[in-house]
Amino acid sequence: MNKHLASLLRSNDVAHSLAITTSSKTCVTFVMINVTTWFIMLLLCPCQLRAQFGTTPNIKHIVVGRCYNYITLIDPSLRYDCEEIWRQFEEAVVRQSSCNVTVEDYHQVFYAMPQTWPCDKFLFWSKTRALMYSYAAVVRDFWTLEDTLVGFMFNDLIWCGQDEDPGFDFSSCPQWSACRNHPVYSLWRQASQKFAEMACGNITVLLNGSIVNAFNRKSMFGSVELDSLNPQRVDYVNIKVVTNLEGPYIESCSQGSVVDLIQILQSRGFHWTCTDNEQTLMILQCIQDPKQPSCQTCANSLSHRKSLTSD
């Protein structure tokens, strides 16, 4: 996000300079329209633009700092060597070309920070990132991959090595789709696999019912986490399908790819439940957009229920 803001500020500086050096209002308007258009494209296509950037600046300070933050404030019971974790990570990335960092290359990184998590708290998600964060914040019993040390350390960062010289490439990193063994993808694949392997008790899966293929076999959940779940450790897989407040209402527990997920779970011996548009999830969306008509209906329903209780 900082890189995006910096780029925007640079673009505004260019627009400001051009506006000063030209007397034509048409030119000024043209420049400002272009800047506005660029900004809209930035908001609509963050993933594509982000892929053009290189390794996150100051990545070592960020990663090591997050590590110390985690073991000092979040989970003081952990006794890890943050500098050693960084050394293992750096070695895994910079000794390979930018498109040739495998899951195996990160084994020493994960070996340096083993972590276990309590049962009945695992939350998996796919295409519901923003809502997942809100849900996990409200229902504090949940643990997501981003709550683990590795998830906390590397969340939202970009990295890749240079093909010719040792070290990180801070100018340009390939898109995930450009290579099978992308350095960022390989780390998250390994992290996702280990997270799913540790899952136990009742687990929750949060899916987006407003898109086609809410359950996508090519997603991290569909391609890695699902296959790593152990029916001997997991009691119930509780699927929660949630749609956007304004729709569209494309998939549900009885329609679309969610049915495929249920069939896979059944074939592997998992017990499961499935819920459409759980009230807590809808309320969380209403907090973000309270003017939606469905939010007014929900508010009236809650008020009526409260009045009945009071009586």
UniProtKB/TrEMBL annotation:
Record GO cellular component, one term: plasma membrane
Instruction: Using the record, list the residue span of the signal peptide; answer none if the entry has no such feature.
Output: none
Q: So what EC number does this one have? A: 3.2.2.6
Q: Determine the domain of life of the protein's source.
A: Eukaryota
Q: Which GO terms describe its biological process?
A: positive regulation of B cell proliferation
Residue ranges of coiled coil = none
Q: InterPro entries in the record, alphabetically?
A: ADP-ribosyl_cyclase
Q: Name one Pfam family in it.
A: Rib_hydrolayse
Q: Recorded GO terms, molecular function?
A: NAD+ nucleosidase activity, cyclic ADP-ribose generating; phosphorus-oxygen lyase activity; transferase activity
Q: Does the keyword Transferase apply?
A: yes
Enumerate the UniProt keywords alphabetically. Answer: Disulfide bond, Hydrolase, NAD, Transferase
Report whether Transferase shows up as a keyword of the record. yes
Give the family per the record.
Belongs to the ADP-ribosyl cyclase family.
Q: What is this protein called?
A: ADP-ribosyl cyclase/cyclic ADP-ribose hydrolase
